[in-house]
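Q: A reviewer asked whether we had any structural model of the full assembly, not just the individual parts. We don't, so I'm hoping you can provide one. Inputs are below.
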Amino acid sequence: MTTTTPEGAAASAAAGEDILRVEHLSKRYGAVTALTDVSMHLGRGEVLGLLGDNGAGKSTLLKILCGFQPPTSGRILVEGQEIVFKSVDDARARGIDAVYQDLALVNQLSVFHNMFLNREQNNGPLLNNRSMRRLAREHLDEMGIKIPSVNVEVAKLSGGQRQAIAVARSVYSNPKILLLDEPLAAMGVKEGAIILDLVRQLKEQGNVSIIIIAHNYGQVLEVCDRVNLIQHGEITYDKRSAETSVTELTEIVVAEYRKALEERQRLGEHPHIPS
Amino acid sequence: MFLRQREATVLVVTIALIVYFSLASSNFLGKSNLTTWLSQDAAPIIIIAIGEVLLLICGEIDLSVGFIYTFSAFLMHYLIDFYHVPGLLAILISLLMGLVVGWINAFLTVTVGLPSFITTLGTGFVLLGLVNTTSHAQPSPIPPSVEGIGHWIGSFGWSEISWAVALVILFHIILTRTRWGLHTVAVGGNLLGAQEAGIKVRRIKYGNFMITGLLGAFVGLQVAFQTNTIDPTSGGYTPMFYAVTAAVIGGTAMLGGVGTILGAFLGAIVLATLTDGFSIIGISANPLDIIFGGAILIAMIANVQLARLREAGRS
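A: Here is a predicted structure for the entire assembly that you could use as a starting point for your response.
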């Protein structure tokens, strides 16, 4: 079951036609249920924060949306059309691109080879390195991302620079929907700011709708139009950012945690509740 | 930059060894020894090392390639002498066998999920057993119908090293200038990341196992033609380990993601120079393995230390 508050529905109406709708998505790995029943929507040009604790199903949802793995059941509609993704390439061709938590960068390769990984430009049978190098440099300059050179190995860059390269790579193909998995995880305040600025910039340009997966509520509320909370594989909360707060979100998650503890104690599984 | 430095270091060592042996013996750079040194000693290691470099970069290894080498010449012999298959066709089928064994290695490793070390240990033993059972562990002469083409493959003095150099150039270009090479590095450098980028990692691994098998089968035929006999004791683990040694000396990382064909080529030349040089200046080949072992250790220590320096330089 998914509860959508009136505020949430109003927010999507304000954002215009939905570019993405997810209906009753579930995912099971053998006996483990990662997603129970997820329904959600993303407006055109909207930035949606998908929040939730570790293990709530955020990354599973993302991997389904970007074609990395298929759902067990449920439907995905892009611009009103039901779509079954067979692969990451397939989703990319439909305008959905993701920046994974691990960034999917290859340390041993240069920045420009990473930028064009699996969408290399060829000159006959050979790689057109000159063209890829030039385009990578232009694109990074355009996005205001500063790195010493596009020829350096990615291993030599800082965490923020690497994250920025990964985002720049996903944006390069001009996706309609961009999925960011924990873009601020393991990142300093200054480095996190680079990424948030990048998201703001994309939002202003208005060509792309974005889902940001995170568990740090404060930073995400700053850039998101709307937030969804995912708990135990279901969306349990849907509000505009302006109408919620870090305190409210935290209370919901903590309340849920207390309830689970009490339940376990009632069943005699857990002797103590920390007060 | 690091790899170029590594190749330059190995090049200096190579040149120093060549200078040393040519001063120690006037025969070293003599016409007859040049083909022994380059075609007989260096070429088989170089060609097998090409395959091992590709596999090591994408995070795998092939221990069976030396047995593909042994089996391919016997297969050609059986096809021609027992099944009356035309010579050229028999050669093509032997090469195809290399591809098939490479495919089996890939299937067991990539699809079934065994570590390639175990897979190829197993397939290597099976091939060795096949050779010894079918040949009764006896050598055979080269069938007359392939003597002519054999000239081009291995019996002409310069043919093996010419093939080796041509293959090094071809695969150096493939590794550094094509999608295949870039994806091979990506698969070994970040397997999950490569998958997430949509790279078909299985296809890359299957392909590199099959390339290694094909090259192994080709070397088997070359050596048979060059030695003018089909010998069940030729091949085996020795050329495979020499090839891996050459790759490691040339800067290929056992953990994947890093390596060059050019480095392995130079590494193989170093090994061949030592083998040939020692025998020509009349020193027993027995202590050679001590030097090889030392060379591997020094190369690996250099790798680790340079990696630490790079790590320090990053922060």
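A: Points you may want to mention in the reply: Residues 245-275 of chain A form one domain. Chain A touches chain B at residues 68, 87-89, 92, 98, 100, 102-109, 113, 117-118, 120, 122, 125-127, 129, 155-156 (CB under 8 Å).
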